[in-house]
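Sequence, please.
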């Protein structure tokens, strides 16, 4: 259940109307890395997490709800930045709100002109936020990444927070309004906080690599294919030990010869790893059992109830 509190989470303010920046800020309202995407992503992921991870359900719902609070802050800021536009539209009789705000005819005209660069503000929304990005592209459910495997979902969230953070960073360069900058700084910082929460939560799921259940084939898990000629580079991505599985990278200088010599890689033997095809199959079976038991143990066969109601003394 949601319970709305009318005050914003952060005291969002603007120094003056600015329809140009309102349009840019729409990116964080209805854009692909915006607050609605974040809120919906964590909200949707939470359903699948509840059993058997009630602790992650709690975290995902708390962060989803905070993202809705950010959406509210962004929407309120857009509305404030469009103050004159909104009044001008509603004011059919002629008292000139924008004239009063901006004092002067030229300024008024350029203000309206800027608002018109996104006609939606004037024509479709009546001078408020829209569920689109800054180019007017409608928000889409395809922005939401929820795979139902927590180790995968949490990694998606770390990436989502990184993108949201950098969009705020870019936006901060495009406004001079100290109040708006303050709000954007808060919203950006919260994404940095969320990044670390998801990172910490991922660490509590063991094992969490490779993502999901199947362990990956040791014949192909540590080979680096040099797929080009010329200036080739070496680094920890193709020499030394791989960070996830701790296998020694095999640098295949001539992938074509290897493909031909091994009957299209079918006859390749695992090299630079302790894992074998047998140990892989054993590990697959063991982890499948663990993961399915976790879910089955907390799923009643028939009747089901989502909530338990704790009564207060
Ligand atoms: Mn946010
Ligand atoms: Mn966030």
């Amino acid at each position: 259940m949601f319970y709305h509190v009318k005050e914003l989470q952060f005291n969002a303010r603007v120094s003056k109307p600015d329809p140009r920046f309102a349009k840019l800020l729409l990116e964080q309202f209805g854009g692909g890395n915006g607050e609605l995407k974040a809120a919906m992503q964590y909200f949707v992921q939470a359903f699948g997490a509840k059993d058997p991870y009630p602790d992650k359900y709690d975290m995902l719902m708390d962060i989803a709800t905070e993202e809705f609070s950010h959406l509210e802050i962004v929407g309120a800021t857009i509305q404030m930045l469009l103050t004159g536009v909104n009044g001008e539209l509603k004011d059919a009789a002629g008292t000139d709100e924008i004239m009063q705000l901006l004092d002067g005819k030229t300024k008024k005209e350029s203000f309206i002109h800027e608002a018109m660069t996104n006609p939606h503000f004037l024509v479709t929304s009546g001078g408020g936020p829209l569920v689109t990005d800054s180019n007017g592209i409608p928000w889409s459910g395809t922005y939401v990444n929820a795979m139902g495997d927590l180790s995968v979902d949490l990694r998606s969230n770390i990436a989502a927070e990184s993108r949201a953070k950098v969009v705020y960073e870019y936006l901060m360069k495009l406004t001079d309004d100290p109040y708006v900058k303050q709000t954007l700084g808060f919203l950006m910082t919260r994404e940095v906080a969320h990044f670390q929460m998801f990172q910490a939560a991922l660490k509590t799921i063991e094992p969490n690599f490779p993502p999901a259940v199947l362990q990956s084939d040791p014949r192909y898990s540590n080979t680096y294919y040099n797929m080009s000629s010329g200036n080739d580079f070496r680094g920890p991505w193709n020499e030394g030990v791989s960070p996830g599985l701790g296998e020694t990278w095999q640098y295949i200088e001539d992938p074509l010869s290897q493909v031909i010599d091994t009957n299209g890689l079918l006859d390749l033997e695992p090299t630079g790893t302790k894992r074998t095809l047998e140990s892989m199959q054993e590990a697959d079976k063991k982890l499948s059992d663990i993961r399915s038991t976790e879910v089955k143990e907390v799923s009643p066969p028939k009747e089901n109830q989502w909530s338990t109601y704790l009564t207060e003394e």
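The mean pLDDT is 90.
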